[in-house]
Protein 1
Amino acid sequence: MPHIFDEISFLVGDSNKLHHVNAVSALRPFDDEIINFLATFSQVLFRLPGVKERSDLASLAFWCRPASLKAMKNQYGDINHLIGRGVAFHIAPSNVAVNFAYSLFTGLLSGNVNIVRLPARDFEQINIICTALSHSLSLHPRVSPYIYLIRYNKKQEINNALSLLCNVRLIWGGDKTIEVLRQSPLRPRGLDLAFSDRHSFTIIDAKNYLDSPDKIRIAHNFYNDTLHSDQTACSSPGLVIWLGKDRTVSKNAQETFWQHLDRVASERYEFQPVSAVTKLMALCMISAQVDGVVQHPVVHNRLMRAQLSTLSHDSMEYRCHSGYFLEYFAASLDEVLPVCGEKCQTITYAGIEKDVLRDFVRNKAPAGVDRIVPIGQALQFSLQWDGYDLISLLSRTVVAV
């Protein structure tokens, strides 16, 4: 095992300490030292140049504020019977720059030592976060044994070695990534949490949207949910449902919405030319394979839309990214059920009450839908994610009777 760790590159931590992670004591969830460390990290990150202009980094810093952490802790009531599982091995997704930090911080808050395999892609956000972490650890040295941020060539031997160190493994990524990592055995009592390929969509009540004075804000919020990350996150909507029995009203709402979003995108969105080709191919594919698809005229390459005449269980298989959206006119929520299968993660909404959507999901009990949030909150991470309560699953219960 020692020579295997020599092939690992460390952004935070080192190989000598990594050999001894199983000797580090687990903590109780929301340990005071961890709370103080994250509060320091929030302050340090906010002060770094350019962070306030990057919404994903600013959101991360905001998430770690003492008031935010206190609110999270208060959700759990008495947690004196919980203690971290030990060592958590996180395999971060390759498509979302800051996801690794949320996974790491969740592991810390639940009381674990954390080994995080970072994305191979060199996101600037990763370097900024590592800078803030290193400075914060210098002020909180007792937390250092609990954080290892690493990169390595995806060798199964290294996956095997790290998996055998851990008590819980969190695999963020596509189904193929999960399949590969599960070939590496865990310890007998090891726990696997897999965050697989998912999709998400938006529901907008057409009439209430047209009556809303906040159309520009909704456009900016929808942009943050989608184009800010090129729709690469599972929680980024790829389908927009226009809810309403009056088709004329729905069409007016549709036209108004896309006009506002196009203005926002023209000011904020930059994409690679290859993305335009990818979207055009997706548009041609769905038009050839699905009956009744209406292609909305393409004035430029920022936004492309395909309107569906019906929804089916495989409709979301035709979703794309980088400003490509499916659309559907629904007279009732029941028409949405086919896309609420096991792969469905998040519904974002505007112009409709949260309780209406919550009751719809509870009563119909689809295999999917784990989150219902307003437009603008699709990417906001919480300790309840993908249907998992992460604090509960990343800690163990000690019973005394």
Note: The chain has 15 helices and 17 strands.
Protein 2
Amino acid sequence: MIPDEHVEALARATHLRDAERRREHATAWERMDASEREANLDSARFAPTILAALGLAIVAGDRQERRTALTPEELEAGARLEHLRWCRFTRSIGRTQHPHLVSWEELDEPVRELDRIRIRALPELLGRLGYSVIDDGAAA
């Protein structure tokens, strides 16, 4: 579990990373409308679930066994889960018409890469917040 203040910090950092990777100017957090902020917060809240589904855990501290990157298979599976999360969130706020509200298989590669960007950054961004992403078996 990540405390609320770290969820917001992760959401902010992910938002900035997304814009950087797309070579876009990031809208300042304070200037984003509430639904944009909530979309980023929802992604940050769900990150531990995605990592757990991949057999990974988030633990406090800089652990020696921390993961600095995900395997290609973990990245792909995590990106698929992030897309499902985004679809669920988007529909939950009443937005039912969007060209990306389709299955993963129907997305083109540039759109899939947007989900990969988010998932790829998790070990580094969580590390900046004082956490380590480790294999779940090493958490004991």
Note: The domain at 4-139 is CATH 1.10.490 (Globin-like).
Protein 3
Amino acid sequence: MKAHETSIEGLLRIELDLQPNADGWFEESFHRDKLAAAGIPPYDVVQHNVTYVERAGILRGIHAEPWDKYLSPSAGRVFVAIVELHTGQVETFELGPGDALYVPRGLGNSFCTTAPHTVYNFLVNEPWSPERIAVNPFDPELAIPWPSLELSYTERDAASPSLAEVRTQQA
């Protein structure tokens, strides 16, 4: 496992060891000691959530929750957009098996499936709660270059406030 810093403070991209075999592949997607040695802050997983998405083009909004996240697809591919809410800085990633992200609490994260039959894992260090900040994934200020697919998203995500409105609400 190797961790790479990104342009957003605290956000780390992780290369996992994907080992091909005659049947497909094997990966150790989460190993606390190896991740700590690679530079991931101490991280005690309390909940593991899995999302299965049948189609490419499914987009889930920009949500910032009060917990750290470790994100990794185990099948398919995802385009991920991470937003630093104070500065509006955006960093995007294309992830597949063999990739992971460590996303510190407070950063907004969103994803769009780019392949059918995608399985996306979310390991979090606090139990899920409805507390979150939501930002419109189509906010022109963010100018996220979403994949050129027919996108499907919830009205709730599309109706989320712009980043400027979120900043005003928090002030």
Note: Helices lie at 32-38, 155-158, 163-170.
Protein 4
Amino acid sequence: MRSRRIVSRALLYLVLIVGAVLTLFPYLMVVLTSLKTAPQLNSVSPWLPAVPGTLSNYIRLFNGKIADISFLAYLWHTVLFTVILTAGQLVFTTFAAYAFARLRFVGRDVLFWAYLATMMVPNVVTMIPLYLIMRQIGWIDTWFGLMAPYILGSPYGIFLMRQFFRGLPADLEDAARIDGAGTLTILLRIFVPLSRPALGTLTILTTVFAWHNFLWPLIITSGDNTKLVTVGIASLQGNLGADYNLMMAGSFVALVPLIVIFLLFQRTIVRSIVLTGMK
């Protein structure tokens, strides 16, 4: 029995190690490629480090310009986009989820499930209609057009918060109403403080989505004053070929903020994954 337990545990660790290697290998390739020169990229195996390594790609990335703007400007655009989008998602999603979970009005459930059904439609399908709408109202290549499809909430976020609100005891709300609290007071003073785990989950998911968003920013933006870092990295691929060393340096710089967030909020991220699975 003991030998079987040892063998099963050894197989389990072997599977976990193989999974970890497969997961981390693309990130390792990004780092190794960013530390190579163009000749080393073609002469050294992709999974081997260059000797000696070089930081020239990072120097070119921060000292040079992509089109007519610096890479730091793209990073700043992405930070601004992520912060505003996350704040908008938290505010509007919370209000909508509370209405669907606690307020009573005609057609509430039908409206909720109809809105939730939009999750079945791939985002790619709605890109062209969204672009045509933005063109009609003059929001092409503007911050309003960039944020409009996401800032007012998402079906998944509203579903997550609604399910969490529905799980809170109704006695808390009844007691608050007896004390004279209104709907807004109940939401802000009772439900929101109790919903920190769900709000943490939504914050993490929205931050990662906003930071990695590529297709819609690529379609809606054309000027350098509204481009995000993902589109900026793609701009390094020109008509004469791609500068893979520079692209990998930019990709690694774009990954650093998310790595820092993961290291600082490991427990919150794990808790959010557990909460997402339970809900």
Note: Residues 65-278 form a domain with the MetI-like fold fold (CATH 1.10.3720.10).
